Amino acid sequence: MRHMDSFVVEGLAGEPKLAGNITVSGAKNHILKVMAAAALIEGESRFENVPDIADVTAMGKLLEGLGAFVTRSGSSLTVSAKPMSGTVMDPALAKSLRASIVLAGPVLARFGSVTFPHPGGDVIGERPIDVFLSGFEKLGAKISWNGGSYHLEAPQGLSGGEFFFRVVSVTGTETLMMAATLAKGPVTLKNCAMEPEVVATAEFLKSCGAKIEGVGTTTIVINPSSLTPRASPFRIMPDRIEAESFLALGAMAGKKLTVSGVVPQHLDSVINTLWSMGVPLTISGDSITVSAPERLLPVNVRTHEYPGFPTDAQAPFTVLLTQAEGDSIVIESIFEGRLNYTAELVKMGAKITLISPHRAKITGKTPLSAIAVDSPDIRAGLALLLAAAIAKGKSTIGNANIIDRGYEGIEKKLSAVGLSIKRVRS
Ligand code: EPZ
Which side of the chain, N or C, has fewer Cβ within a 10 Å radius? Predict the structure, then answer.
């Protein structure tokens, strides 16, 4: 039986008491992509700094269902894709994980066909895959839908070509870039996502022999190549969203909180937002130290593709803005369901008006009171946990397993810096 854990948090009642160091883990949205990329390679791919989170386990199972071997030892993970031959993904697993669509690209490119259901994932709004499908079609794949799953075929292999992304898509860019490494001719992708995870995934592929140019810009060109396994393990980049969530916490409740193991350049937009709010930050190498100022200034935030303000950091920052003195506007421009959790913050005492599904007005500063609530998705769940951390009284955040999908040992990291938080199994 699957247990549903809860986090029980004794709030700090607005007192800035957290001190010490939190080291961020490897990035969820990087490891999931390179695990999929490993399916392109006839051999063994080893990764280090791999976070121990539920989504990595699910991706491992999905790969094993297609004949690969996935083994884990501490923070190292190995994918042996040599024995892979299956092309039909387990529907229940693939549905539970948005990143399953990313695996479709490598499997199609290497084996000439792939079958998968419409992928699921978070409840943060519509998650269409039309862009992926038209990209695969552009590279010569034939697509059919039997009412339950998609079946894609390119028996002679994918062809070269040019594809323009109608919308900028992170996983879309990664998936087509991966698939294109085994195409018969050059592939040009335009209007690509520039997220650091896209760049880091290309680095892995390049180190296996892929010929990829322009990554980190809006146009990526992939030339035909053959891929061979790397000799050494590949290191997963630090999780920038985890880092940003802890910085938001430090700005509300930090006495002197250090977030370490980060790449500060990945956090430019968030760091500049914190500066505008009057938050004192010290950046030193791969560490950032933050404390809560006497007074937080309001600021307007608009989520945007990288290097703009990340949609995944929107919820933690909305919690922070409830503590700023004055009016702030948050515009969520990427996903339409991603402000729904603000209703829970209102129950805790926040003054938030949803002007539209994409726009919220926050008036602070409001003290927050404790709440019992279930985590709606990874990022909103974490934001509610942060709200509970600064609230007065004891909160319970149910559905902890949803937070576990994206954050490794969150209760251990937060209790180490002075928060009273425990996991309760029900
Ligand atoms: C990735 O999702 C991340 N997930 C998300 O993180 C993140 O929120 C998002 O990028 C934006 O940064 C992974 O990397 C696994 P998109 P992705 O395709 O790639 C529309 C988290 O919490 N669209 O860049 O699925 C779409 O509706 C997760 O870690 C289409 O219209 O997002 C959205 O409005 C949640 N058609 C926009 O594009 C398509 O075929 C951008 O989404 C694909 C996308």
Answer: N
Q: Which atom of ligand 1 is nearest to the CA of 312?
A: 8
- Tell me which amino acid residue 322 is: T
Q: Which amino acid is at 282?
A: T
Domains and CATH numbers, the chain: 5-25+238-425 (3.65.10.10), 28-235 (3.65.10.10)
Write the DSSP assignment of 82-148 as a string of letters: TT----B--HHHHHH-TTHHHHHHHHHHHHSEEEEPPP---SSS----HHHHHHHHHTT-EEEE-SS
* pLDDT tens digits, 243-295: 999 999 999 999 999 999 999 999 999 999 999 999 999 999 999 999 999 99
Instruction: Provide the 8-state DSSP code for 265.
Output: G
Contact between residue 301 and residue 334 where contact means Cβ atoms under 8 Å apart: no
Residue 27 φ/ψ, nearest 5 degrees: -80, 125
Token duo for residue 261: 């193991």
Nearest protein Cα to ligand 1, atom 41 = 169
- 3-state class of 386 per DSSP? helix
**132-176 pLDDT, tens per residue?**
999 999 999 999 998 889 999 999 999 999 999 999 999 999 999
CA distances from 239 to 41, 44, 153, 271 (A): 25, 24, 35, 15
Around ligand 1, the residues with Cβ closer than 6 Å are: 28-29, 32, 98-99, 122, 126-132, 167, 169-172, 193, 311-312, 334-335, 378-379, 406
